[in-house]
Automatic annotation (TrEMBL):
Domain of life: Bacteria
SUPFAM superfamilies reported for this sequence: Activating enzymes of the ubiquitin-like proteins (SSF69572)
Domain THIF-type NAD/FAD binding fold: 19-252
Record CDD domains: ThiF_MoeB_HesA_family
Matches recorded under Pfam families: ThiF
Protein name: THIF-type NAD/FAD binding fold domain-containing protein
PANTHER family assigned to the protein according to its UniProt record, in alphabetical order: ADENYLYLTRANSFERASE AND SULFURTRANSFERASE MOCS3, UBIQUITIN-ACTIVATING ENZYME E1
Amino acid sequence: MNNQDNLDLELNDAEMHLYSRQILLDGWDLDAQEKLKFANVLIVGAGGIGCTTAELLARAGVGKITLIDADTIETSNLQRQIAFTPADIGQFKSDTLAKRLMQINPHIRVEFYVGKLDQSNADEFVRQQDLVLDGCDNFTTRYVVNAACKKNAIPLISASAIGFQGQLFMVDADSACYECLFPKEKMADEGLRCADSGVLATTPVVMASLQAHHALLYLGLDKSPLKEKLLLWDGLSMKQRILHFEKDTNCSTCQASLSVN
Ligand SMILES: [Zn+2]
């Protein structure tokens, strides 16, 4: 699925009007908005995180968004996956979300892929991007996304939400990575998933909004406030903590990326 109307080098009148509240913003100018227009962003997962992140980036004017998700829409998704309605049940999430983004902003390009991101295709998806946003629902995919981003030196912003709790962090080419933070052997039991443990409607939307916000800071202003930092959001106390994390000298993903780059 492609809209080819954003190949002009500059923002046209309709785009200037659409993004006028951003362009007017102190600290966000035409240059930042044009950077968004030329940005390629991959969103892994079109669920509770991906729906909100994708919609915000589409509205803000990110020029090319690629969505990947293997799942179909179920009734129990509708409580938090804000792009979907009862009429969409049984449809593929990535396809339905892509159509929604095109309705929201006809000036951007949207591509979607129905399937899993895995070892066989991760490099191909990741290397075309300026930024990867992970909102998937399982640790296996998270490690694959992290490794592909490190190997191809593409920045990654990863968000997750479970119950009343959320996490957000950024990994860059030269930084510590997800596996440094959460070594694989400690996560071997797959841990918690929304499907198993429940999640309040608002938790993924809060975390996705923070993820999209960080993506705009990075793409438009070259800012990386959460690089090598883990933001923890507690939805019961509404407190937020930010912890620094460091490279693990035994991390196999970081070692592998050193030999490639
Ligand atoms: Zn690492």
